[in-house]
Write a structure and sequence with these properties.
This protein is mostly beta strands. Helix content is about 10%, strand content about 40%. It is built from three helices and twelve strands. InterPro entries: LOR, LOR_sf, Tubby-like_C.
């Protein structure tokens, strides 16, 4: 028998694996403006896709779909006066239920570069605990495809842009460690992609 791997589901335990997952992210053709990207496994099977504003027609909104094309995660950038005065841009991730956003499952804070010197992108999983302000953080440079998603304890959850593998703007690898939610990782990548004005942004 193999060693037991503790699962850490955020979107769903069906997206957690007992083994390391190597995912390949490929930008949709540039003819689809703001078209998003497709995520495949080692066997070139589509396991996730992300729709950007060129497809769903709304800026600051993203939809993550599973391999069958079913919407599993709706993400949007928070707006309004309170947001305008904040030192962070806030993103909210919701589970999809019968095609509609339902339960809030995570929030991501992206520091505004002109207002905040500490540029850490941090993610809080709902519901929030009383003594913690974040659960995961993104370290490194997404634009250079050299970054990682780490847990609050410092463990690497996912590595984006893996040394020794083909890496570029339109095609790169993501390695998700055993037990972690791959759909959640793809959701974080979708936000990073939008923040950096890439495939999901119109």
């Amino acid at each position: 028998m193999g060693a037991y791997t503790a699962l850490t589901p955020i979107v769903s335990k069906i997206f957690c694996s007992n083994s390391q997952a190597v995912l390949m992210v490929r930008r949709r053709p540039p003819t689809v403006s703001g078209g998003g990207f497709v995520v495949t496994d080692r066997d070139q099977r589509v396991v996730f896709s992300v729709d950007g504003c060129g497809i769903i027609g709304a800026s600051g909104q993203l939809i993550v779909r599973d391999g069958d094309g079913t919407a599993i995660l709706f993400i949007h950038k928070k707006g309004g006066i309170v947001q305008a005065l904040s030192i962070n841009n806030w993103w909210k991730g919701y589970l999809m239920d019968y095609g509609e956003p339902s339960k809030l499952i995570f929030s991501l804070q992206d520091p505004k570069p002109l207002l905040c010197m500490n540029g850490d992108v941090r993610v809080t999983v709902e519901p929030k605990g009383r003594k913690r302000h974040w659960d995961y953080e993104v370290t490194g440079s997404f634009s250079q495809r050299a970054c990682a998603v780490r847990s609050r304890a410092g463990h690497v959850v996912a590595q984006i842009g893996v040394k020794g593998m083909l890496v570029g703007k339109d095609f790169y690898h993501v390695v998700v460690q055993p037990g972690y939610d791959q759909a959640f990782v793809v959701g974080v990548i979708a936000i990073l992609d939008n923040i950096h004005g890439e495939s999901t942004r119109c």
